[in-house]
Amino acid sequence: MNDDLDDDIGGVHIKYLVHCRRQLWLYSRGYRPEARSQAVAFGEVVDDTTFARHHGVDLGSAKIDWVTRGAVVHETKSSRKPSPQHQAQVLHYCLLLSRRGVTVREAVVHYPLIRRTIRFAWNAIARRTAETTEADARTVIATQKPPPRLARPDCRACSYLDYCWGDR
């Protein structure tokens, strides 16, 4: 176990890696336009009001929505459709807890707007996937130049849109 690696890569890093490597690169350098994003504000309201009786788990740069008995990691998303970035994020949380000695059983992503939940087993395959994803994030962050931007249609509703596409 390498303790100095535990808290430097959080769930947002992983989510951004899977969504857009450029977004991760910018985020890791302190560019944070999310504070002005209506989509982010909406997601926070959904998170705060949907499962209000649960308390988050703060792991430094990672903030897990909640963990239930039997070490089940829960994450709430305001999205109307499941995404690979959501899976990568919850598996990363499982990895972080495992490194702290917690015997994690599974992860659950809740989509309250569509009344759907998706479960992901935490096993050796999931762990390898999470470790590979984390290593990929470290590689992107370490590069000196930003990765290329996505095609403009893929950037719809992204809070980084102005940085990547503004006045070009």
UniProtKB/TrEMBL annotation:
The lineage of its organism: Bacteria, Bacillati, Actinomycetota, Actinomycetes, Micromonosporales. This is DUF83 domain-containing protein. Gene3D superfamilies: 3.90.320.10. Pfam families: Cas_Cas4 (PF01930). It comes from the Bacteria. Residues 11-165 form the DUF83 domain. InterPro entries: Dna2/Cas4_DUF83 (IPR022765), PDDEXK-like_dom_sf (IPR011604). It comes from Mangrovihabitans endophyticus.
